[in-house]
């Protein structure tokens, strides 16, 4: 995907580890994505309304919630049900992330390869599912 085509793609990253959030933000901004980062889920819905993300990167283990429960909340609300979600985790795997009725559009185990992250994001934004 050409860098210019990412210019208007908004990505919301919800990751409690400040260093990981910074790395993801820098990588995505270098690829011309517009990135908003949160370290907890408390203001997630407000940020979604403000940012109108094309994709959400969501850590499973957050200090104030379980990303899998947040995914259910997103899928259960009419205005957020169609936003693609890429889940990331250091503890969980693609085989054991299932929690409830909903699956994310993709999953990456931490630590992840930068190229794999970008490929996964571009694929999900193109309509592919990796989970």
Describe the structure in your own words.
The chain is α/β, with parallel strands linked by helices. The chain has a single domain (3-125), classed as 3-Layer(aba) Sandwich (Rossmann fold), CATH 3.40.50. The chain has helices at residues 18-30, 44-51, 67-76, 114-125; strands at residues 10-14, 34-38, 55-59, 61-62, 65-66, 85-89, 106-109. Strand 1, helix 1 and strand 2 form a beta-alpha-beta unit. The mean pLDDT is 89.
Helices, strands, pairings?
Blueprint (H helix, E strand, L loop, with lengths): L9 E5 L3 H13 L3 E5 L5 H8 L3 E5 L1 E2 L2 E2 H10 L8 E5 L16 E4 L4 H12 L6
What is this structure, in a nutshell?
The chain is α/β, with parallel strands linked by helices and 131 residues long. The chain has one domain (3-125): Response regulator (Rossmann fold). Helices cover 33% and strands 21% of the residues.
């Amino acid at each position: 995907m050409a860098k210019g085509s990412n210019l208007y793609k908004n990505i919301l990253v919800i990751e409690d580890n400040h260093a990981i959030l910074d790395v993801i933000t820098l990588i995505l901004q270098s690829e011309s994505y517009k990135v908003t980062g949160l370290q907890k889920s408390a203001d997630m819905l407000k940020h979604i309304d403000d940012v109108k993300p094309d994709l959400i990167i969501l850590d499973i283990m957050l200090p104030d919630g379980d990303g899998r429960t947040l995914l259910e909340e997103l899928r259960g609300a009419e205005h957020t049900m169609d936003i693609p979600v890429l889940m990331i985790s250091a503890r969980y795997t693609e085989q054991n992330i299932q929690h409830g009725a909903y699956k994310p559009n993709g999953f990456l185990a931490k630590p992840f390869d930068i190229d794999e992250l970008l490929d996964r994001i571009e694929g999900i934004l193109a309509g592919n599912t990796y989970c």
